[in-house]
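At this stage, I wrote out one protein's amino acid sequence and its backbone structure tokens, and that material follows here:
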Amino acid sequence: MSGRNLTPEQEIELLKRQLAQTQRMAALGELAGTTTHEFNNVLMTILNYAKLGLRHKDEPTRDKALTKILAAAQRAEKITNSVLGLARNRQEEFAPTQLSQLINESLILLEREMTKYRVNVRREFAEVPCVRAIGNQIQQVLLNLMTNARQAMPMGGELLLQLAHDGASNSVDLTIRDTGSGIPREQLPKIFDRYFSTKSGPDETGKGGTGVGLATCKDIIDAHQGRIRVQSTVGRGTAFVIRLPVFQQKAQTVPLPKLGVPTGETRGEVVGG
């Protein structure tokens, strides 16, 4: 069907699908950049200590060089396994998903970044069931929110990641809490609006500032029939809480909802979904 024959409603739907695809490709490109940077750091460590070992013939120096090379190679193995995990999650269908595994794989890709900015990561994972999710989309949300948290703590701080099972609603709550600068109360109702950003532009790593990250996160959580809410106090930090339904083995298959443009209808404590 040509563009001339589309109704206004069909054109809007087509644009929504194209926007969702563009956002997925942008997230993939950012992930590729992060992974490449991490591998480059590992390779530089291996090269530098290999040169050190070749220059010095004494056993203590060579032992130190080989130990550092081994540690770098083991980190490269972790990064590779994390990327392979992402590749396994590329299917666009709902499946039983272990959130703790997704969080750990995401942290591997951000580990050096967190260390560089002196962000201590604390994990409090209760035993929770698998959620009904599309793995790569939830990982996209995780990477976005954890990067935002790191950017909110330029002088360092703590990132708290929590998992809890809510039996009453048969869902799992994922909390991402930072001790950063916080978000002014008057800006909270707008943070899920597309193209609204509390940042002046990308940081020195090239991330953030476009105003589409949180809007995309809300789109994804809405499509998962979940909820996302935010609590923030200036000077004390921000917490995003995501609630996702537990995977039901015998549940009827539900078609994947199309990702649309969020309305941003929020006030006070902001709730999405």
Observations:
- Residues 8-55 form the longest helix (48 residues).
- The CA atoms of residues 165 and 172 lie 5 Å apart.
- The chain has two domains: 12-87, 95-245.
- Strands lie at 95-97, 119-125, 131-133, 157-166, 171-178, 227-233, 237-245, 270-272.
